[in-house]
Amino acid sequence: MKLLKLIFFTLFNISLILAQKVNDEIVEDSLSRISLEEVLLIGIRAKEDVPVTFTNISKKEIAPRNLGQDIPILLNYLPGVVTTSDAGAGIGYTGIRVRGTDATRVNVTINGIPYNDAESQGTFWVNLPDFASSVETIQLQRGVGTSTNGSAAFGASLNLETDAIQKKAFTSLASSFGSFNTFKNTLKFSTGILNDHFTFSGRLSQINSDGYVDRASSNLDAYYLQATFKDENTLIKALVFGGQEITYQSWYGLDPITLVSDRTYNPAGEIYDHNGIRTSFYDNQVDNYSQQHYQFHWNEKLSLKWNFSLGLNYTNGSGFYEEYNDLWYNQNISFGGNTSFDYLNLTPFKIGDNLISDSENITQKWLDNDYYVLTLGFNYQNAKTTFNIGGLLSNYFGDHFGRLIWGQTLGSISPKHLFYENQGTKNERSLFTKVNQSITNSLSGFADLQIRSIDYRVSGLVAGPSSFSVDDNFLFFNPKFGLTYNLSPFQRLYLSYAKAQREPNRTDYENGNPKPEKLDDFEFGWRVKNSKIEAQANLYWMEYRDQLVLTGALDEVGAPIRQNVGKSRRLGIELDVKMELHSSWIWHPNLSFSSNQNLDFFFERDGILKNLGKTKLAYSPNLVAASAILFVPSARFQVGFLTKYVGEQYMGNIDSEKSILSSYLVNDLNLVYSWLPKKWINEIQWSLLINNIFDRKYESNGYFYTYDDTWTSPGDIVTIEGAGYYPQAGINFITGLKIKF
Prior knowledge:
Elements: H1 2-19, H2 36-39, E1 53-58, H3 59-62, H4 71-74, E2 81-85, E3 94-98, E4 106-110, E5 113-114, E6 135-142, E7 156-162, E8 170-178, E9 182-190, E10 198-209, E11 218-230, E12 234-248, H5 256-261, E13 270-272, E14 278-281, E15 286-301, E16 306-325, H6 327-334, H7 341-344, E17 349-351, E18 354-356, E19 361-381, E20 385-407, E21 417-438, E22 443-462, E23 466-488, E24 491-502, H8 506-510, E25 517-529, E26 533-545, E27 548-554, E28 560-564, E29 567-582, E30 585-605, E31 608-616, E32 623-634, E33 637-646, E34 649-650, E35 660-661, E36 664-675, E37 683-691, E38 699-709, E39 718-727, E40 732-740
Parallel strand pairs: 4-7
Antiparallel strand pairs: 1-6, 2-3, 4-5, 6-7, 8-9, 8-40, 9-10, 10-11, 11-12, 12-15, 13-14, 15-16, 16-19, 17-18, 19-20, 20-21, 21-22, 22-23, 23-24, 24-25, 25-26, 26-29, 27-28, 29-30, 30-31, 30-32, 32-33, 33-36, 34-35, 36-37, 37-40, 38-39
């Protein structure tokens, strides 16, 4: 804590000295300075005078490491962020946690359109391969943040703005290759502005990787097409983008013994003989999914002070994961029942005197969904007042079903036998209004009021088969208030309170009768920005009621299982600094130190319900830190040394030693060099990224489970604990060349 105080006050004093070099002046934003591109997001993005905690990331900052890894991995060095990779190398299924909260509570929007899946509330970046190559800017708001579209943010909100209009025509080719047979190819183009108004641009991408984990392959294809019309007061964008992913399953993790003996082993697709000897792996144990997005945006300047935005979206997703269900494994190891006729919704039959009621089989579990969204925004701004009104209407339909495509001994069944099917629908309506008002020359007040209405229904059979139905509706009122005080033209203090409430997701309903969760978030921060330093320090206090915390357990497709807890709390401090040490040296460190606790946790151990009192919240390290040291001797050459530290964390909520995920420190090296030929090639850029340069063996994610053993000692109940881990790659590299014409 003394170190934190020293860092805080050192940065504060440095900023005071630097700020004194500039004459005091009040910088007033005016609508005349707001581009039509910004109109699209002005209602949901935060600015410097808004009392929330946020970080902005530009395309230029992402570019040196944009060699094929997913967006969560590219954001790994932001404050309070912890990232994960099932395949171990950042390609395929990846995840992000912010302030200890999982991705289902991180609100994600693309051009103001919600990207979180309506039912699971997760974000699956594998469905949008190489999307970072079509992103202009990103804003990560930590905490509740300001009101946005879609499900409420409980740890953060991540807002992505896609490519801005390119004034000049260009074509670029980018190729990279690296460890684990990783290859990425990207073609981008733009016509530039045609007839003073029109632009067409696009991207085609392909990424292939074997993954660090055995057979954790990724075969990814993506596209992005954009047409725009722009005049003095109007900007219209039509976008079509999407992707196709085929990834070999790698969400099973490893037990502690296998982690030591064979850390790249992947148990997915194991095939055993009747003696329990593993003979091979099923080749097509894959996740196969495609997703298409269609967006239309109309941004209009109505006057100098008023502007308007309209967004329309249709998203279609369709695909399955295929699984070989081994008879011996099910009957002797997992006891999952996936080979039983009951599970497959089949009728047992006899062959002679033998009753056949089990069979090895191959199943496909499908999801086919459609998502429609309408967003509206009206914005007003003058020298003292900013006023925003935003609204959303959305409708989601998801068809979930399972097909039996092969079995060893099934009897007489129809082709592609349907062994379960259910439909989920979700309708959402939301409205927010925001006001940022100058009270004095130095003080401004902020108010943000949001109403969300959700109707969620599910009916049908789930795998088992068993009946599953949901008929729930919610009405949430989420107010937010704050103050910003200008200490000088380049320093601000802010204080805010925000309330968030959100509905459970589909997995929560499948595992019980969940309650909606509630959060009161208090933020106090300080920002400084001038020619030498950008810094932000903030304190946060997040008080939860009925938080749906991660238990550490996973369902059969690797989705985390959550449960409501009574009261819980996150309390922390975050420091984020970017300073120029020398004309060629830039240092960008950040530090997040927190306390994350269940305040009154109950757990049933050995058949007895016990009050454990205060326990650590799962997947919530007390210390997360990062550093980027950049050496930029010229505009054409850059060297970056990147460091990430994640402290020890528990994967469950009962403070069990078996649930500990060890701390880790990882360092990356990033080099970029550019040539500027004088002829028909505009630029050639070479990039090299060496990940985990000191070859650290570590695990960034895992799972923890408990179950009651009632068989070993009849009459006794003994609670058994177990854990699994997702190993990450040792030293590995990706290098690439980009040519722009």
